[in-house]
TrEMBL record, chains A, B, C, D:
Name the UniProt record assigns to this protein: Oxidoreductase
Xref: Pfam families: GFO_IDH_MocA, GFO_IDH_MocA_C3
Species, as recorded: Malikia spinosa
Entry annotated with the keyword Isomerase: no
Residue span, Gfo/Idh/MocA-like oxidoreductase N-terminal domain: 9-125
Length: 344, 344, 344, 344
């Protein structure tokens, strides 16, 4: 804590797509203790945006150059999933703290290889972006569980469901996304592990259907998926992921314990208004993940900065990313084979 | 209790309009311990309905004949308000138990005169139809208050709000209804007294507006009314009555105490469904007072029958009716004068 | 409809346990068009109750005698599950209409055998007690689906969850209940079929855990169960059943379609009250299935009576019972084997 | 808009109490386009806090010195109410933009005098802190009204209710607060005007009670107050203010129109969690005004900065402050006299 008012953390961001821009704005404008000093993207327009809108002074087209910049303490990776693992390892080797968006990799062995690299740099923070852990409601639920208010938690039911995009952007993205469970449910998987106390997963079963996007057939993906995961000791999790909700984004989690349960996010209220007219009583639903987790994105970045500055312990480890991938891949394999898949 | 399985209470009903039919069906089909043996109406079609639909054996066009029927133990009055008081007194004098719809009278002195008659017949039940007291949710709230769960209750906010009827039936009814406060808020007034422990009202102030029905101007009535009532000892009540809600019937009450509050009826859900679609998240609102208080109408009639059969003490007295009229008339007078009105 | 005011349906009930008493009271006191004229139970105290409390005139210890009574038009079976099938067949052969509680049988072949008997008596009603279909909220949801308001419904998520009974009554009942899915989820299975348009089920997978009642181990049952069912054409259902909810009974269903979704029963409100105090904002949850479905039990019995009197078509057939058993047994087998089970 | 990336607005803040600290942190850390360059307080510890926690470079004990600082473009006044008017005028005369917390003054003539000063400085922004206008839910409601979704809005019911503070801090503050209506309801008054389209108020009536804090008696104040305000043309408003809610802060507003209504803030949810246990279903209520309006405080300050930089028109004028005081004082006078008060 004694360092709190010392020099701010100098951050470089790589990747300036939709989510990258959010993180960049957050770091440039609203994250105490940090300064966004560099940005990296192969897209010239994105670098222009960073300079003009956020005043980012140093811009790189090449990630290696970003890492070579000695005036950078930490990098934030919002790049395509296929790059996450190598870029994380490289950042650690370059002496930088690193924040990487989820998933770390679609491959368990690759995740483990990055973990191995991280073990060589114990003084650097390596944190994966499971943003829902930073949402105040999820944090309150976790605190209640840790305080024993649910007794022994034994079941998590969790969903990540997006509003249908008639343009089907995600269909084009499907071949590289790892499938609906790796793309959406990975958050729910991480939450289930967190809420249940990090039990060892032993088996997964999945099923799914294509409700609206037949274009997914080719890559073996679905637009609505269901999964059951069994953990050692009898705990269970049930996941639902959808790309086709008609009304908005509805991401919810329920943790059921022996003496209490907690529900997070039910109702999907966009805000605190409710309208009444001839059609009845209604409220608007959240439009998307960003609207739901705006605060969490901010708090996540603040936590990363605080961890880099030594003010708090890193709230997430790369091991959390590895385990989420391990379970997500077993679910995905079950979707394809139609059989339960044992988890090593 | 020992009488429970003896002969059923023989009931005659007077008045077979919309609400009268409800009570008649209730008594004929669903009220244990009672038999609907007679009906009285000046409208031949209504008597036909009673005979054909409910199988009521004895039908009278004249109320005096109904009272003269020695095979009737109790009468249920669902007649126009102007008849309530005289018909109640006559029923008592004829040796019948009597249930009378609210309000007993628009005139306090008339209410008191009926009370005086009732005192001469202490073994007969005389009960006024403040149906909301019999709703399970109101009953639970009252029980919580009596158990001290709110500390000292000091404020009631209560409303009776109907969905707008574009045909404006109530406008034609306005000249004889006693105005919006006597017609609608009389329920809220009774509830406030009940919830607050029957304090003495000392002053009332009202205001109102005509939102949609200019035809009310002639009789000095409004379609949206607001009132504040002051009770001895500092307790307060605030009432809202509306004829013009766009979405349905929304009748709610909040009781605020020093250590807790209770809200009854918020949300106006017609049932337990909630729909989600491109317009957001919505539920249907209750269409009307009947839909909201269907159970309460049943329980009210069961309570009346149980009181007549000596199984329970009468849950309501004529004095409750008198006090509701006293407060309702003060509010109505304030609406007209624009000044606070002291309550004797 | 022309028969509506003719002689009432004469009903005999068999089985006077907790649910049997409910049906008996309903028939004796509140079901228009019916008279409860006989009761059958091997337990003398139960027959005494029927005579003394409900005034049922003819009492039988032996089911064969009940069926031999020529003054009975219909029988209502609320007997142990193992008797349902034979008693239903016998009633049909005796010329009676029959209402039988769910499940018809734990065995698919037995269900089919009863169906075969029923085909010989096409003029007699044979209806199974899937009571949730008669709940007004479920009925409204179904009507909305039939009106196309959800587009194509493709996923049902449904649960039947009871408040934990520390005494564990159901544990003693477990060896004969058929397991948690046959006992609880059979309702959800029936609803899923109904909401999805009676698709053919092709495969089931289940998992479960024992959270609080180790006594279930011996009979291979669990106190919390999860299941996924796959239907032909890509529709899916997901079920959750629990015996251990800490707060009350929470039975909910969600139907997800391509243009809308409907949720039924979320929130588990016991009534329309909400309390606020130092602990926050709270409402009481429903205590049990009876409290939740009180209206539905009434409407179900009214529908049975109306069907027997020819006023409506029977809303449920024995085939619905067979299919629910077929799916329920596949789920139960999957729970035991740990493998997906194909449905013939 | 062309100025958006020019030099940031240099802001000096006066007053560093609880709310002052919030605004200072907002300006120092999270408000794009602004820099907090100076702070003013007669309390040395507060200036120390500004320097040490926020790194504010220039600190003044004397407001005149703050105004004399040529490197300041705008001042933010979070000082005691009695100073607001003079300090606002002085800031304007010193060539600064000014943001002043509500109420501008407890005296209408004083408000009008500040307005007169402001007219001499048309190029400087003078904005009063009616923060609820900047809450996203209130903003959405207002947009819906402006889009005609409620038809003609004719009634506002609005409340500002704080959780009881057993220490009774506000009792000590009561002699200078202007009373509960000037301190709390002034927000509701401003909202009512805004939602109803700035109608002219013609009359007010108020009542109140002391539920828990007898210390208020001496200064003629109450801890629970009710008011009705009549506007020209028939619109109405009803206000409730409380210092004694048992569960938290519950600030709500309902706007009722001829074709729709909107409710804002009902339910008082602190977050998106809901707990279930043996006590039922519950959620935590908002603890205070700050928790409820955290986003609004941020957006308000961003709007002030944007107005000063010429990017938007000032969303609020001093005239809004004057009218709120005019109505608030009429309500307060009515509370004391017991009579309706005409509004000039």
């Amino acid at each position: 804590m004694k360092q709190e008012n010392t020099a701010p953390l100098r951050v470089g961001i790589a990747g300036l797509g939709r989510l990258g821009k959010r993180h960049a704005e957050q770091l440039a404008r609203h994250t105490p203790g940090a300064r966004l000093v560099a940005a990296c993207s192969p897209v010239a327009e994105e670098l222009d945006w960073a300079r003009e809108t956020l005043g980012v002074p140093r811009l790189y087209a090449d990630y290696a150059e970003l890492l070579a910049d000695p005036e950078i303490d930490a990098v934030v990776l919002v790049t395509p999933t296929t790059l996450h693992a190598d870029q994380t390892s490289a950042a650690l080797r370059a002496g930088k703290h690193v924040f990487v968006e989820k998933p770390l990799s679609l491959d368990v062995a690759t995740c483990e290889a990055v973990e191995a690299v991280a073990r060589d740099y114990p003084d650097q923070v390596a944190m994966v972006g499971f943003v829902r852990r930073f949402d105040p409601s999820y944090a309150r639920a976790k605190a209640a569980i840790d305080a024993g208010q649910l007794g022994r938690p034994f079941l998590v039911r969790s969903q990540t469901c997006d509003q249908n995009d008639p343009a089907g952007f995600f269909v084009r993205f499907a071949p590289s996304s790892g499938g609906i469970f790796m793309d959406c449910s990975v958050h729910d998987i991480d939450l289930a592990r967190w809420m249940l106390g990090n039990p060892k997963a032993v088996r997964a079963f999945a099923s799914g259907t294509i409700a609206l996007h037949p274009g997914l057939t080719d890559c073996g993906d679905v637009d609505n998926g269901l999964a059951i995961v069994e953990f050692e000791g009898g705990q269970r999790a049930m996941f639902y992921a959808s790309r086709t909700l008609p009304h908005g984004h509805e991401t919810t989690t329920e943790v059921i314990g022996t003496t209490g349960t907690v529900q997070i996010g039910f109702g999907a209220h966009a805000d605190r208004t409710e309208f009444r007219n001839a059609a009845g009583v209604q409220h608007t639903a959240l439009p998307d993940f960003f609207a739901r987790f705006e605060d969490a994105f901010r708090l996540e970045m603040e936590a990363f900065v605080a961890a880099c500055r030594g003010e708090i312990a890193p709230p997430l480890t790369l091991s959390d990313a590895t385990e989420a991938t391990r379970i997500g891949q077993a679910i995905t394999e079950s979707l394809r084979s139609g059989l339960p898949v044992a988890i090593a």
